[in-house]
Amino acid sequence: MKIGYLYDLQAYPPKGGNHIHVFELIRGFVDSGHNVAVLGDPTMPDVQNFDGEGDASVSAFVAFCDVIYARVDSRSLESWRHLRKAMEEADSSVPVVWEINSPADENLAFSWLGGRQAGQSESWFRWVRRWFHAARQAPGIRREERFRKKLAQRVDAAVCVSSSMGRYAGNKLGIGQVVVAPNGGPLVSEEEIIRRRKNRENDKFTVFYSGSAIYPWQGLDLLAAAIELAKTEAPDIRFVLAVNQRSDNLPQGDNVVIKEKIPRDEVLNEICRADVCIALHPDWYWTPHGVHGSPTKLWEYMACMTPVVTSNRGQMAELVQHEKNGLLTSDEPADILAQIMKLRDDSGLAMAVGRAGWELVQEKLNWPNVARETLDTFHRSIQRRTGAR
Fold first, then answer.
1. Residues 133-158, mean pLDDT to the nearest whole number
2. I need a labelling partner for 81 at 20 to 30 A (CA). Which of 171, 191, 223, 303 fits?
3. Structural domain total, the chain
4. How far is CA 97 from CA 158, 178, 200, 255, in A?
5. CA nearest neighbour of 126 among 136, 140, 137, 111
């Protein structure tokens, strides 16, 4: 099969969750014996890249394809000319499948979450400023959603990262064939985990966080409040934060270690060496879709057999069973710290939770499975298209 993957990024080497998603799917497609073409990404190995500099390049990309696969996230499809042209030029026998990661209103996260700090009250003046910031974007978001719904009439199927996005694809966009395939983690063997753990340099009970210090939906402010509480309630706990950039809101103190811009392989080392990994996601109260993402880092944590503490909402609450394969927490700093301390104080629970999380990734939530489910969707879409001719 010849797969044309549109994602409008330069995704290699992977730097974030969106890059990892693209890279791992392409690797899964190629490992399964398929040919992959991309548009405007000379960084990606093992693919045929069309430069996307002109209409002829887009036309050549379309001519290559047996199926067109397009990443849909919070960025505007209305302004993504390559996607529109590719969908217009595709032969009727060529299915179009969307990979749906978020609705357009994800862009309001900066309006409603940016600059807020957990446990700190907000003045009416700042709330009104947020309201106006969001209100200015609302007309463009409504226009974008109308455009998505119109464009989706040509879409054969959607592969969605969460059940929330599955409902969005079917009910909001009107796509008839919807598959929910959460993001995955890497397949890490027990032998590799043991090897990576041998290089641990600090014996203190360690909590690890990986993510952005800027994007407010990564919940770093929630963790920072728990870290502050831990200074008096659990001073023996050490927090290691791996971030791509520094910000004024990064927690500080003797119990905090900041690691900036470390390679992905070193991130996996840190996950394996940690006693607990943490992924917190604040409520998306302004959107009917709620917390709709599939946190890549959560599955990477679990893939390394390290027990996780994560937010009791969205996909985390759907896939994580409390005290079975992870621990769920509210946004309260005392609750976050209490879940961490529970794992600190019960090594048997920590070991059982870590192994159950690893088994979940090994059996289901891994990138090869995501690639297989996506490929199955392509095959079914091609059969429907060619059978209808």
1. 97
2. 171
3. 2
4. 6, 10, 44, 47
5. 111
* DSSP class of 154: G
- 26 neighbors 59 (Cβ within 8 angstroms): no
- What's the pLDDT band for 355 if we cut at 50, 70, 90? very high
User: Are 223 and 211 found together in one domain?
Assistant: yes
Q: Is residue 130 part of a domain?
A: no
Q: Which two tokens stand for residue 18?
A: 């969106």
Residue 259: beta bridge partners? 242
Q: What pTM, to 2 d.p., does this model score?
A: 0.93
Q: Are residues 304 and 356 located together in one domain of the fold?
A: yes
Give yes or no for residue 93 having a pLDDT over 60: yes
Look up the domain containing 383 and give its range: 2-103+145-184+367-387
List phi, psi (to 5°) of 277.
-120, 150
Question: Do residue 269 and residue 292 come from a single domain?
Answer: yes
Quick check: 58 pLDDT over 70? Answer: yes
Is a pLDDT exceeding 80 seen at residue 317? yes
Indicate if 177 and 276 belong to the same structural domain: no
Measured distance CA(266)–CA(242) in Å, rounded: 10
Helix ranges (H only) for 10-101 are 17-31, 55-64, 81-89
As a whole number of angstroms, the distance between CA 2 and CA 34 comes to 6
Q: What is the mean pLDDT of residues 291-319?
A: 96
Distance CA 250, CA 247 (A): 6
Q: Looking at the chain, list the stretches that DSSP marks H as alpha helix, in order from N- to C-terminal side.
A: 17-31, 55-64, 81-89, 109-113, 124-151, 163-167, 190-197, 220-233, 264-273, 296-303, 314-319, 333-345, 347-363, 367-387
In this prediction, residue 115 carries a pLDDT of 76
Give residue 26's pLDDT: 98
User: Which pLDDT score is estimated for 10?
Assistant: 94
Please state, in angstroms and as integers, the Cα–Cα distance from residue 348 to each residue in 240, 307, 355, following that order: 23, 11, 11
CATH number of the domain enclosing 216: 3.40.50.2000
Helix axes 17-31, 296-303, angle to 10 degrees: 60
pLDDT average, residue stretch 229-255 = 92
Q: How far apart are the first and last CA of the chain?
A: 19
* Residue 180 domain flag: yes
In whole angstroms, what is the distance from residue 70 CA to residue 159 CA? 10
Residues of the chain with pLDDT > 90, as a percent, come to: 86
Q: CA 134, CA 138: separation in Å to the nearest integer? A: 6
